[in-house]
Each structure stands twice: as structure tokens, then as C-alpha cells.
Protein 1
Amino acid sequence: MRSRSTMRDVAALAQVSLKTVSRVVNNEPGVSPALAGQVRTALEQLDYRHNLAASNLRRGQHTLSIGVLLQDVANSFSAAILRAVEDVSRIRGVVVFAASLDEEEERERQLVSNLISRQIDGLLLMPATSDHSYLSHEVRTGLSVVVVDRQVIGLRADCVRVDNRSGARVAVEHLLSHGHRRIAFLSDLPSIETAASRQAGYLDALRSGGVKVDPDYLAVGLRGADVATDAVRSMLGLEQPPTAVFSGRNELTMGAARALRQAGLARSVALVGFDDFTLADSLEPAVTVIQQDVDAEGRLAGQMLLERIAGREGPPREIVLPTTLVPRGSGEIPPP
Amino acid sequence: MRSRSTMRDVAALAQVSLKTVSRVVNNEPGVSPALAGQVRTALEQLDYRHNLAASNLRRGQHTLSIGVLLQDVANSFSAAILRAVEDVSRIRGVVVFAASLDEEEERERQLVSNLISRQIDGLLLMPATSDHSYLSHEVRTGLSVVVVDRQVIGLRADCVRVDNRSGARVAVEHLLSHGHRRIAFLSDLPSIETAASRQAGYLDALRSGGVKVDPDYLAVGLRGADVATDAVRSMLGLEQPPTAVFSGRNELTMGAARALRQAGLARSVALVGFDDFTLADSLEPAVTVIQQDVDAEGRLAGQMLLERIAGREGPPREIVLPTTLVPRGSGEIPPP
DNA sequence: TTGTCGGCAGACAACGTTGTCAGGCGCCTT
DNA sequence: AAGGCGCCTGACAACGTTGTCTGCCGACAA
């Protein structure tokens, strides 16, 4: 296994100085065409590959790399964000370190630290932590940070997210307006800001609708579709089962839909989910959801990050995108 | 904005030599506890962050980073691979550059070149190119490469994939055995090895089943669900419409299912898809698919890559995973 | 002819880190 | 007391690159 050739090797072959090779590689002016040709031949002969690590070390400028830390790159929501960020980054030649946090605070800290060591220019974060002040030193020393999907806490950083609370309220009001009073709520870990806000929206709507909150209808801390299925199944066994379900995240909605179908109640118990998901419109009945423009969210977040890296100054910006209720059938089922 | 402090700064504050700081940071032996404590205090005071770029430059060892180039990180198949690779990588502290190729050869070449410049240790590739010999120089100079999902061509590299041809044959034979003779085939770009192999399997099955191939039932070059929907819709308008559809990729299957549903034929035209997808079991009727163990594929590929990076020698290994036909209803519909 | 100027090329140091080696100090042995 | 050994510590060079500066050469003007 040969080792990669360096500018020094190229210089030796082309019989020029190392610096001249550097000039040719970087398309700097001040090299006569003849010499440049000589150098280029040598570069090709030796299959020269530029070493960006060394270059960046010397230049001390941007590395054209960012970190994108998401909840789970295999989840369609995170994946869509990643893809959107990748697309805006590619245009400027920026590459992306991607990683999943699985809501583990410690993993977030370790990954951030690791990526900082690798001199990333920016960080796009869907945080697992609920306090982001640990990043303030990094921001002070030049790291650009944009938080996506969740609120920033304890840090002056840009943020792109949706109004989860009002989105959830709209969903539950939709069910109330169809006559439901026994509305279940499925939620992820309450430590997740998004989940907590959606729960707050659920409570808001019940309260202003004059409906008492029944803890039997509240299932929180659900971490996946299967658990959501179980939760709904057991609620359906209650003496007074819920007549409608509001589910706080796409995976939970799929789990809830399965539970209803298996119980033969898909057409009699209403269902509204937060987050759209593939094939939501193809189920029977099609699933009513609170939709957010994930692609726009990712693109905006990516753009804001790149702008910050490019040097934009100014106070942190918070972009709160709207959500849309998409009625498809499941959410318009009346109570019995 | 202050600049990050270096070992030199720490050394100055702790009144020791730079090298002693290096020893403490790297947990090397040979520093008295007293001095080490002094240094650690200084490290904390200055919020020292290790510079891996400089470290790697000097050490000339592994950078503990790999590139993962997939078709589209937002596609559930690619995303699942990415996630599996991430999981095996994280264990060894390896970080992942992720990117989407969208079947564009030029993008693959550029990304590879960019990542090589960043000194990645390995490359996990779902190639857009059909000739991978351009990588042989990189392999010779120390890059480990594993190709996933598709065959390797012109390069001595490891590979993890499924037997697409036989999987497709099984799917079509399944339809034949239920009595179908007019079986449509939906496929992606024929330049994609996977798509071509599946088409070959389709043709194999028809031939050995004694069924003549009808070009009207062949729709190739379909790049997304919508196009697949259109293709199926127009086939259903034929004088002799197909009685069954075999779809060559998950997105196309979703598109086909939609077309059948919209035409009111979901229960009368059979459908089998290659690749499983979320909610395939929740549609009406549930969709019969050729399933592959994507998670295993990603994990294996990642492990092989990390082993190569760790120095495993020997000839390239090719792992061909089996596929499974999962009958769910849509594929068992008989012809009229 | 001399002085100057522009274009080109190379020597050198530096980015932040680590491997190598040499030196100093205290302690033990003879 | 002299020698030797082990433990710490630091000076130095090097990884591959690039910014700065100096110097050379030929051409042109005075």
C-alpha cells in the first residue's frame, strides 16, 4: 500500500518548489503557463490528492463542514430535515456529519465535543438536552449554531420550529367541534420540548372547551409505534373508552391507527395525529393530521446556519412556521 | 469572538512545556500527579478543545471518520442503512459524513474526491456509477471501500447486497402461481444495477412460466411514486389491462397502490412490491412484498468497513443476503 | 549604461499537534 | 563518595499546507 503523494513529491517530480505546486493547485496567479503545465503533469502522474486537513490547519479559515445532530436519521421527519440541509449545503460545497441522538443527552454532548474537535464550522441541532447553555462557549469561539424543531434554552442561537402548542390546540379543537368529549392523548417523553408543548396545547383546548382532563386518557412517555398500539388498546378496554385519539407524533399515530384497525374501530373512533407521514392519505380511513412543512424547516435552518457561518451578525432569529390541519377522514368521525 | 485556546496557551498558563500538556491531554504516562493537576486546571480554565485535525496530521493515523454515500438519505431504505452504519460506527468513535447521490454519477465522483481530501478512513457506497474502477487508486493508497445494495464493478472491494434477480423471480412466480399471465413491471432507471437485476428476474420468471413478454406491461425509468401512479393508471386503460403488477422499488409500489385504489381496483388487481415499507401491512388490502433485512445489510456493511479499516487483509468478500416473500393479501388476489 | 519595475520563483515560518531524544534530578547500590 | 538507574520534563523536528518576504531575471525608460 503506497502512501498518498504530497506537494513535496509533486514538486520534486516537476523540478519546482513546493510553493509553486501550491500555487498551481490553488489556481493562484503568478505561475508561468509553462511551469504550470509541468506541475499539472506531475500532479496527474502522482495522482495527487489535496489534503484539506493540512490546508485548513494552515489557513485557519472555514473547514466547509457542519454537524447535523437529529433525533434519529432513520425517522422520516429527521431524514427529511437532513436531506434539506444537505441540499442547501451542497451548493456551497459544505459537507455534513450526520448523527442520531435518540433523545440521549450524554450522546449529544459527546458528539458535539467530537465534532468541535474536528473543527466544524456550524452545528444544526435537534436537541436532546433541555439546556443548551453548555454551547455558549463554543459559540463565543466561533461555532455557529441553529436549533431546529425545538426551542433554544439558555443560548443565543437561531431557531426554526413550528408552533406546537397552537397546532395541538387546533387538532383537539377540531375533535371537540365534532362533538368529542372523551379525547385521548398519546405523547412521547415529556422531557422533549416538542412533546411537552403539544401536551400543553391539548390541555389548553380541553380547558377552553370546558372538558375535564381525565388522566386515564393520557398516555405519555411512549417511545415507539408498538407502545402506542398497546396504550390505545388498553384505553379501548376502559369502561368509558375515548371516542377520539390525538396522537403527538407520527410514529405514535401509526401505532394508534393499528390499534384502532385491529379493534375494528378505525371507522368509529376519531384520530388526529401531529406530523404528517407517508401513506397517511392511503389508510382506511385516511388519517387527519397536523402538517408541518418539514422541507422548508430544514432548508431554512440550513440557510440560516450557512449565513451565520458566512458572517452574518445580529441577534438570534427565531422562525416559527405555521402548521396546517389536513382533514382526511379519520379526524371527522363523530362520537357514537 | 475569541479564538480557541491551544496547547501552547495552556502550557503558558500552567507554566509547563507544551509537550507536557499534550501528555496530559492524551493520558500518556510520565507526568507527575502534581503537574498533571496543574495542567488540568489550566485546561479547564481556558476551555481547551483538542484539535483533531492537527493531531491526525501529525499522527498520520486514522481520522475515525467515514463517508456514507447513499441514493437519498430521505428515502427510508437509505435512511435505514445510514442509521445502521451510524450505530456500528459510534461504538468505535467513528463519525459519519452522509450524503445523497440521487443517481448522479458526477455527484458521486465529486463527493468522493471531497471526502478523500478530508482524509476519511473509509467509504460506504451505494453507487450511482456503474464502473467503480476510478476508486482503485484510492484503495491502493489506503481507503477502505464497501459497496452496499449494488454490485461492485471493476474494483476489488467488499460488497453487501441481496439477490435481486432471484427475489424478483420469486415475486413474479408467486403471481404466476396464482394464475396471472398479464403481469406488469414497474422499474427505476435501467442504469441502476438493482433495477436491471430485478427486471432480469421478472423476465426469467415469465420465460420459464411460458408467458410472452408484452412491452405494454413494462414501465421503466420511473423516478418516483407519482410517475408510477401515472404509469399504472395508463396501463389500466389498455384494452387488455394487466391483472397483476410487480413493482421494483418501495416508492413505486406506493405509487402503484395509489393508482389501483383510485381506480377502485385495489381488491381485483394483484400487487407485489420489491422492498418492504412502513404501513405496507396497514393498507387495504395489505401489500405483499419481497422483504430484505435492511438493518442487517447496513450493519454488516458497516462492520466490514470498520474491519477493513482496522486492518483486515484478504480478498474482497461479497455477502449476498436472502430476500423473503411476505404474503399479505395484495399479492394473492387471483385474476378475474 | 544604469536604474527601476513587474513578473515569476523559491526560502522560510507558521498552523496545532505528537514522536523522539536528551537532560536533570533524586535515589539506590557498591 | 562515585556511579548508575529510573522517573520526569522539555527542546526540537515533523505532519502537509499556505502567507510573507526576498531575490532573480529580463525589459524598459532615462
Protein 2
Amino acid sequence: MVSSAPVLHTRARILEAARALAEDRGTNFRLEDVAQAARVSRQAVYLHFGSRSGLLLALVEHVDKSEGLPRYSQRVRSAPTGVDELLAFIDLIAEYTPRIYLIAKVLDEARRTDPAARAADENRMLLRREGCTRHIRRLHDEGRLAAGWTVQGAAETLWALTNVSTWEDLVLDRGWSRQAYARRLKRLCLATFVRPPAAG
Amino acid sequence: MVSSAPVLHTRARILEAARALAEDRGTNFRLEDVAQAARVSRQAVYLHFGSRSGLLLALVEHVDKSEGLPRYSQRVRSAPTGVDELLAFIDLIAEYTPRIYLIAKVLDEARRTDPAARAADENRMLLRREGCTRHIRRLHDEGRLAAGWTVQGAAETLWALTNVSTWEDLVLDRGWSRQAYARRLKRLCLATFVRPPAAG
DNA sequence: GATCTGCTTTACATGGTGTCAAGCGCGCCT
DNA sequence: AGGCGCGCTTGACACCATGTAAAGCAGATC
């Protein structure tokens, strides 16, 4: 009979402990701290994750899974028009970035030393860039991409505009609300990428 | 009589050595390496800079001085109109960012652990933000700021658009040329911030 | 009851930062 | 010339986090 109490496995406890530590200290935590918070020995961390960066990578996966990006992006793609899709994408970014912010920082730190972390980070960026390309291509296919842009150029620009560090600058540093961030980014993208409808 | 040979003081030699190391290894260098490259003992580094982050901060100052930002920004401010000033500012960013890129990274790394580095970095950001505010305010004063923007909102947006990590994403990661970066950023800023002249 | 598994405990190696103290060469001053 | 101070060297060492190794132990399984 399985225990009915909400007891987490050691592995999960370690991950949750690391997540909590990352949320209030950034990535400046020692494995000793993580172990203590999870009420296991430091060696248990090594048995499960092999190394510090192994833990960080597992942490990224863990948070990703628990935040569930897929259902968000589903909503974006089901927008009626390309313009709506672009706006929905910005809403998604405004909503999703704060949830994965600390993880993005963790990954960013780990990539300095660990090739696996670097690869993982580049894969994340690639996925987001592909998303941007889809949005821009749809705009283009519907004849609404502003003059002067190639699909690739606009997609890469959109990708850079919606990266984590820009969000960090505006929301965390400048104190913009989620709404203000979304509103201004939408204004910017509409003015930049969207050709006005041929209303004449 | 002062020696006429181009012999650098120990302090300057250390800084140059650190700069060279940073340029090809990022910030993953040991003080031992710096000392060796400067042909001094590791302790000499401590005597001059006190600590690792002390060295990094001095390095930032050193590079800043040797690149001479002021004359660049003078050129920007002497533009005939606000729109020209905005475009000149983007040219400045496109030209100047690659020169200080590695330094910005160094500072970014140091700020994680060192409060002084954090303060220095925030001061840099403040200066650039003030510049952005001046450009946008002039645009506004000349009646050319696009509808829907406050001076502050537009200035902070421009500031975020021209930050180092966006440049890094587009130029280093995506391989954009300096010209492509400047051209597309100009197109974006014109479309976003500039109200068309009342023609007709 | 033997064994396997997952974790603990203790000890130790490694590598980089930072500190300390003694010493040394060289220019300067009187 | 002798003495002084300064800038740097030399070598040793403390510290701290990561990572490794080996023995032990307690509960589940057969």
C-alpha cells in the first residue's frame, strides 16, 4: 500500500529545495544549503544529480514541466489572424517570463562553465525563435508584414525584443507592470511589423 | 629624467594583461594567469587592486577611458533635429557596443558578488538612460514623438532596445553585421517613436 | 535471515581566492 | 657611503566550495 501522506521522494525534495533557494538568493547557493533545506546529506545531491550543473539542469526541466508552457502557446496559435497571434504572443511572453525568469538566470549562469547547460540554453532560444518565425511568417502570408522586413529579419528582431533580459530591464529594473510591459511592447510591434490594412 | 622607453607601469601592465585575457577567454581567467601575463607575481595584483572584483572594476574604468565615449556622444547631440539625433544615437550604439561588450560582461559577472560592481553597473545604466531620455525629450519638444508615448515610457523602451544583451543576441548570436543591426534598429525606432511630419 | 538499495558519515583531494610575513633590490636623501 | 622607504617577490598558509572515495546502516524484498 502506498503511503497516502504527501511525502516527496528525495529527488523531488532536493529540486524543490533548490527552487526555493534560487527564488530568494538567485544562484548563489551552496549544495550544502540545498541538502540541508531538503533534509538530506550533501552526498545525496551528488548521488542524484552528479554535480552542481547537473542539479541546475534538472531544476530547469523541473520548473519547465511544472509551469506547462505548451497550453499557453496553443492559445497563441489558435488566434484568428496573424495580427491577433502577434498580440497574443506578447501576452504570453508578459505572463510566462516572470515564471521562468529565475530559471533562465540559473541556466545563464550554468552555461558559462557547463557545455550541457549551454546546449540546453541554446535549444530553448531556438524554440522561441522558431515561434517568432511562425508568427511573422503568418503575418507575411496574410499580407500584413510591414514593408522593408524580411521574414527572418523581423522574426529575429521580435525574438530579441522579447528576450528575458529586456523584460528584466523593464519590469524588474524599471518597475513596469505586466500590463505596461505588454501594452508598450504591443504598440511597438504593431508600429514596427504590421502594415496597416489597405483601408481606402 | 623620465625614461623615454614605452615601458608601462606595473599597474597598467596588469590591466592590459587582464584586458587581453578577457578578450579571448571571457571572465574565466585566474589572477595567476593575469599576473603571469603581466610578468609580475600574483601578490602584485593584490597590492594594486585588493581583490578580483577590484581588478575587474579597474579594468572597466581603464577600457572606458581608452575608448573615449564622450567625443562620440558629442557628435550625437550636435545633430540638427531630434530625428537625426535618434538615428545618430543608434549609430553610436552600433559602433560603441562591440568595443565595450566584453567589459559589460565582466561587470555583469562581478555584480553578482560585489556590491561595488553592482553600483558601478547601475551607474552606467543610469547614464545611458539619461541619454535616451534626452533624445526622446527633444523628439517630443519638436513635436515628433509618436502618439501614445510618454517621454519616460519611450525613453525607457529605447534604453531597453539598445541594451547590450539585445545587441549580443542579434550581432553575436544571430550574426548580424553592424550595418544590419543599425539599419533594422533605426527602422524599428522610426516606426515606433517618430510621428510622421505633418505633410500636406 | 541474507541481500539489495538508498542514504549517511567521515575523510580527503583539488583549485582558486585572499592573507601574512620576511626579504630583496633599487632609487633617493642627507 | 650609509640608511631609508617603496614596490615587488617569495613562500607559506587559511578558507571555502566542489567533487570523490569508502565504509556503514536501516528498511524493503525475496
